[in-house]
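This protein record is not my work; I was only asked to verify it. Take the sequence as given and treat only the tokens as open to question. I have pasted the whole thing underneath without changing anything:
***
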Amino acid sequence: MMEHTAVGEDQAMSDLRDKHRLDLESLTLTSQPFKTLALFVLAIGQSIRSTCSCVLKEGSRLKFLVPLLGATCVLLLVTDGPHEKHMQELLWYARFGLWWVILGVASSIGLG
């Protein structure tokens, strides 16, 4: 009796996995935009949560370096001096790089 129940549960799980796989294959931004965006937001949240968890567990150097680097950048941006033109050039390169990353993402999802 117990063996028959286990076989039935395995079949049910297999059927559920197949249905889930088919649902994911038919999920596109054009056919189901809200569901796609909701799943995207959930995936991003899960990724951020796992990254933060990993950094908090093992990233003792990162916990020190990231705020230090951020504070240094902010300080260099808000103070006047001979470094201003270099910071403006660095910002220009950062914007240029970000522009190409955005274009690459847009192209990869079919927007260009």
